[in-house]
Amino acid sequence: MGINDPRLRTMSEEVLRSFLQSALKQVKINRLMHEGDENAVPQIMPEQWAMIVAVHAGHLTEAVLEGDDVKVERELLHVAAPLLELYLVVKGGKGA
């Protein structure tokens, strides 16, 4: 699916903004829980972020197969947050 795919154009800005805000909130929760400060930038290597994403992708798959929408939504954010952290590392960012 490319950037000009009509299916993407049907996604409202509100839905996209909501997802991104939820993912950023999950990043902050993760940082608070694991670093003690929601603004602390974790010192985690890209390989470790990728493994965290893979673990949660497995949980996401399990939730989808179980048909559990609550778990699906939670795991979507548990995949998205470390993906965002990985993106920041790859781009050389200072944090979310």
Question: Outline of this structure?
Answer:
With 96 residues, this protein is mostly helical. Helix content is 74%, strand content 0%.
Written overview of the protein:
The protein has 96 residues and is mainly α. Helices cover 74% and strands 0% of the residues.
Report how far the terminal alpha carbons are from each other. 27 Å
- Give start-end ranges of low-pLDDT stretches: none
Radius of gyration: 14 Å
Number of helices: 4
Strand content: under 5%
Total DSSP E strands? 0
How helix-rich are the residues, as a percent range?
over 70%
Order of helices and strands: HHHH
Tell me about the largest β-sheet.
Answer: none
Q: What labels describe this entry?
A:
mainly alpha; 4 helices; 74% helix
Layout of helices and strands:
Blueprint: H1 6-9, H2 13-35, H3 46-66, H4 69-91
